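Researcher: Checking consistency across runs. Here is TonB-dependent receptor again:
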Amino acid sequence: MNRKVLSVGLLSAVFWIKAQNKDSLQFSKIDEVVITGQYKQQSINKSIYKVEVIDAQQIKNMAATTASEVLSQNLNILIEPNSGSGDSNAKIMGLGGAYTKVLIDNIPVVSDQGMGNQVDLSKINVNNIERIEIVKGAMGVEYGNNAVAGVINIITKKNYSKKVSALVSLQEETVGKDYDWYKKGNGRHIQNLNLGFRISENWSLTADVNRNDFQGYKGELEGYKYFSDNNDKKRGYNWLPKDQITANAAVRYSKNNTSFFLKSNFLNENINFYNRVIEDLPLGNGNRTYIANDRNYFTTRWIHQFNIQTKIGSRINYLGDFSYQSQERKSQDFVYDIPNRKTLSEEDKKLFYESKVFYSRGMFSNFLDNEKIDFQLGYELDRTSGFAGSETFAFNNNGININRSIFNYANFLSAEWKVNNQISFRPGVRLALSDKFDSQYNYSFTARFNPSEKSDFRAVFGSSNRFPVYDELYTFVVDNNHDIRGNENLKPETGYSLGLFYDFSNSKTHAWRTNISISAMYLDVKGRIESVIISNSPLKYTFLNVNNYNSLLFGGGFSVRKDQLSFNGEVSVMGISQSLTTGNMNSPENYNFYTEANFSANYTLPKVKTLFALYYKYTGVQKQFTQKALENPGQTPEYVLGEIGAFNMMNFTVSQPFFNNHLEVSLGVKNIFDVSDVRNTVISGGAHNSGTGSQNLFYGRSYFARLNYQF
């Protein structure tokens, strides 16, 4: 640990010594604007909510390729990758992806399990992202169901200042120690093309395409070519290979009080699963070969979106979002001859998941010709239809496919009262109706006080519901070894949050610019859905609204910048208390606290414009009660305190522009401390069972080289 802290300190000292006299590109502009939770786009300094912003320059400095890589640097956001499926979900304030709303340009993103929740963040590439806005805490009034822990709003680029703009980017990375330019099974290869056309003063077009070819990480395994006589189950990958292609096209119009954009996003992803179990296949005449039953997974997603901002009459502002989205996942089984490197038989592709969503959200504001009082009236509706094939493990359902649809409609109202230049309030309420669940009410109240131009106080109260996901409603796995059933009578969970925030800024033109922030948050989730043992003999599980969840968060941060040098740092302490129930046994409800901290430093040499960027994050030991593994079905349940081990992450990048900034070359290293597995005695034993294993979070240290050319 001392060596790691020393490394951070030495690199920080290098940045400090080299301070010079020019504004850095890495800092947020004074007039930076946000849209998340606002009546209209406005300065972040005037936002009534505490909005965290990660801009395009920061994303570029990180050399990140997906949204999951960017967000992993943020405190109290843990990106939990599934090394088997390749998915990555955000965990905010200790709650999983089902409790966080993920939006692209204010539109919730379709996923396997709902609108905007359980979104795989590794499927969102960052090549056309303008900024990412994050609001933590329950945001049910503004964003509806599942915004319990917060909202992540990804804002994409839509217009360009130049008549014609073209950017080509190539990035090559090692995956751990593995890399090869040609051979299958080594490295990560990324290509991107981004085009922009300013047709006229009012019209612009954008288009981009990105390919992210991840060739898998073997870890302690030996890859897809491996086989052995004793079937030691070392074939395959800890992180599955996947090839991902995304494309975007958008047209934007803006004139006077009206602007709109029409955008389409396409995703195609192929994931390769290589079975660890190898079979011996006799060929006759004493010959034999080795085969495996492998499987490929295919995901296709379309997001079509239309957004309009205009005035109705001479006063009323209207903001409307309309979207149609679809996502389907297919699988294909095949028998692979390992020594001879060929496919012996191949089945047809089977559709096992499908989601189709129509979504619309509209907001009307500026009803009164009054600078102090404003109202916002809004509506939101979505119709989500889902399909789960009987061949999927969670929905075997005795061979019957599952088709379900849910329609939700909501109206929300809020009012903003600016008492004077220093004090403002915003209360809000939402009524949500559903053809599946009872009516839901959400409330919010936000207050902002700025005693001077340099300081702000914010108090934010909010509530939000979390609707049950597809698995919790419709799982049906009943065979000789399992009896796990969903519960269609589940009720939505209800979450409440209260946040207090203080910010101080000193923005003198020719001096050190400093920002200091302090925050405290409380989150309470009632009626939490959990998998519960309803019978020990025979052993049966179902899902019930039985648990409560509470978290406390205290944090502080700073940023210091002058000329070409900047430092940013944050620290937080979070405590989690939750009640787990199994039969008549309840877990302790003590708060278990853990610490997180991050630090970043950026420096640009003034004459040659060489950029040095460092990013560091520490996550402390996390403790959580979990049910002890049972030796037999009739044994009395017992809860023990499991742990997730501490880990440190650090990335370093050097970038150099050439030819009047048209060409840029970047080199760097990710995960300098070579973290891969983290000790975990909470989840490794399975649902409700403690374990003694580890959790695979990363794939070790990797090196990258990136080439950008701006035409």
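Researcher: Does this match what you'd expect to see?
Model: One thing to look at in this run: The first helix runs from residue 2 to 17.
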